[in-house]
Amino acid sequence: MMPNAPLIPVILSGGAGTRLWPLSRESAPKPFMPLPDGETLLGKTATRALALPGAKALLTVTNRDYYFHTKDVYAGLSPSMLLADAAYLLEPFGRNTAPAVALAALYAQAQHGADAVLLILAADHLIRDQEGFAQAVTRAVGTAQSGSLVTFGITPTRAETGFGYIECGDPLDDAPAALPVVRARRFVEKPSAALALEYVAAGNYVWNSGMFCFTARAILDAFARYAPAVLEAVRPVWSATAAKADSRMLEIDTALFAAVPDISVDYAVMENATADGAVAVVRGAFDWSDVGSWQAISDLTEPDHAGNRGRGERVSIATTGTYVHAEDRVVATVGIENLVIIDTADAVLVAHRDHLQRVKEVVGELKARGHEAYKLHKTVARPWGAYTVLQDGPGFKIKRIEVKPGAALSLQLHHRRSEHWVVVCGVAEVTRDDKVFRITANESTYIPVETRHRLANPESAPLVMIEVQCGDYLGEDDIVRFEDKYGRVPA
Questions:
Q1: pTM score, two decimals?
Q2: Neighbour count for residue 317 (Cβ, 10 Å)
């Protein structure tokens, strides 16, 4: 790598992961979903990126609503692996990958210089061969420093119709056959089954992994040439973002971002640059999965003698080829085959393996009905901790609330509900109108309708309490915030 030209891993973290409902929800999508080993895809991606030689200054481009969840995932990594230098670009809403990559390049150029090498990674890919991945990145970095735009191609292991493909051309150099770098000839959309079979048989097609490597200078020049409208719209966004005081947590202006085209970097830049011979492909020899369906999750666990897999407490009688995810209770199956059963606290999915791609239609139906199960789990993470809905019915809702040490909810009021708080363990500091007082385990307080209030945990141990809400409307949107340490009140 060139002197003073760092490798900047950029993690793009967003997307709903609708095919992995009900574990993946809009408020906690696929990158945050625990895998069978208990880790998350986001955590694995960050660990993998920061283990690379020369990697520094991890940059995560994500939704504003996922910022605190992302920080919690990173805080749980061991060791901390340079995450003290982690920076965040926070989008108010999704605009696909081209604006995200352009903003990341402008950030890297401003912070590290135009020769900084960006490694663009998706937060929801699974790669277990760290050594093979590192070798591919080393090859990609060397190629990127010559001015090429580099993508990573995965040798197909099957005729997959759910991935895009890249047709590979001639080698760029005399690289070893095990890890060649070749010229990209063209990008191909997700093919039919017949075409996918042809691509696998041809041997010069690879899966488009959606991972890229280039210098900040090269990708910005490519945007200027192939997608000037994107770059022209992104520059004022970056100017307004860069002017903010906190250079580690950069919130993107909503109005400016709304004017940015919604387009992928593949369409905006890579396909056009391929026609000019500017795109190189590193044919990675490592394993790779986008974990895009319950079939992919099932493949992460070992089967029993009947081909059954799963997680949690399960009983299988006359059952074959079935995957069961059990959380809080025993799931028993009798006389079935080739099903996927996902049991969570508030939703159950039962699907045949041949129809797993249609799980996203369930999410669409729930959204059309206005049902919160498409968006929220029964336990909902918040910047200050989490809450779990224990029971609700006409006129009431009961929650278990856990507040992190030193954390506080916003100063707020509700127009249509009152709240009763009972402390289970820890110490609660309560603000109620002009009064501030503390209550401890087995003590309670009452928050009337239209009363300004705040709950805080002043201690070093978690605060757990039970909240009983009463009123004619108990939706989460009945909150008027006045102050908030997590930036949820507009300036």
A1: 0.89
A2: 9
Q: β-strand 149-154 against 165-171: which pairing, if any?
A: unpaired
Instruction: Give the domain ranges of the chain.
Output: 7-284, 294-359, 379-483
Do residues 108 and 59 make contact, with C-beta atoms less than 8 angstroms apart?
Answer: yes
Residue 135 Cα to chain centre, angstroms:
25
390 three-class SS: strand
Question: How far is it between the farthest Cα atoms of the chain?
Answer: 75
DSSP 374: G
Q: Which residue has the tokens 């200050």?
A: 384
- Put the strands of the sheet holding 309-311 in their side by side order: 309-311, 323-326, 339-343, 348-352
Q: How far apart, in Å, are the Cα atoms of 316 and each of 17, 312, 347? A: 28, 12, 21
Query: Is the CB of residue 70 less than 8 Å from the CB of residue 60?
Result: yes
DSSP structure class, residue 25 = B
Residues belonging to the chain: 491
**CATH class, range 7-284:** alpha beta
Residues 483, 28: Cα–Cα separation, whole Å: 25
* C-alpha of 306 from chain center: 34
Tell me: the pLDDT tens digits for 78-122? 655 556 678 999 999 989 999 999 999 999 999 999 999 999 999
Q: How far apart are CA 468 and CA 417, in angstroms?
A: 10
Quote the tokens at residue 115: 């020769």
- Span 379-483 CATH architecture: Sandwich (2.60)
Helices 216-226 and 228-242 sit at what angle, rounded to 10 degrees? Answer: 130
* DSSP per-residue string spanning 203-260: S-EEEEEEEEEEEHHHHHHHHHHH-HHHHHHHHHHHHHHHTSS-SSEEEPPHHHHHTS
With tokens 């993508």, the residue in question is 151
End-to-end Cα separation, the chain, in angstroms: 43
Taking the C-alpha atoms of residue 342 and residue 34, their distance in angstroms, rounded to an integer, is 13
Count CB atoms within 10 A of the CB of residue 350.
11
Going by their DSSP bridges, the two strands 435-440 and 427-432 should be labelled as antiparallel
pLDDT one-digit tens code per residue, 50-84: 999 888 789 999 998 899 999 989 988 865 555 66
For residues 61 and 234, what is the distance between their CA atoms, to the nearest angstrom?
14
Burial of 113 (0-12, 13-18, 19+ CB in 10 A): middle
430 bridge partner residues: 437, 455
List the Cα angle 298/301/303 in 5-degree steps. Answer: 90
